[in-house]
Specification:
Helix content is 68%, strand content 0%. By secondary structure, it is an all-alpha fold. The model has no long low-confidence stretch (mean pLDDT 86).
Length: 186
Amino acid sequence: MADFPSKVSTQTSTPAQAGVRSSLPPLGTLRPDLGFLRSLVGALMVLEIVVGLLTWALIADTPYHYYSIYGWVMFVAVFAWLVTIIFFIIYLWQLHLKLYMVPWPLVLMIFNVSATVLYITGFITSAVAVQKTSIAGSYIFDKRAAASFFACVVMIAYGVSAFFTFRAWKGMGSNAATSQMAGGYS
């Protein structure tokens, strides 16, 4: 009993950990998940990012500020594009596994459904406004018509993403073992 106090350590942290601790892992432990890029959800996110960029870039290259109707289309395209990039980074770097307290399948499904609805309104708005705001055959007309086409493609991609994220959220088509192995996206 006499040597008991010498065997007890009252140190609660190492000197390297004396600073403020974060609940997130250090950046050195993060690795990109290439399996996510090969998944259907990852491929659809890449498609949404690339075609969404084309949509708002084509509209931004025209004098859209003269027509307030294109302000809505630009808002939808840029907002959905930025949020998709954020989700893409979260899933690519597996941050959704580190931030486990957030129900990521539900959040991603809600975003995809919302983006689909927003892009439906944006596509219809853009398609209706093309002929009313530009002369047929001009470069402005061509860019706005192409932006409407790409808005339709992105709208379909978000709709397909909404379907697959709904299936992932509900757990349809897989059992618990395969959904754990696939990391939540199949």
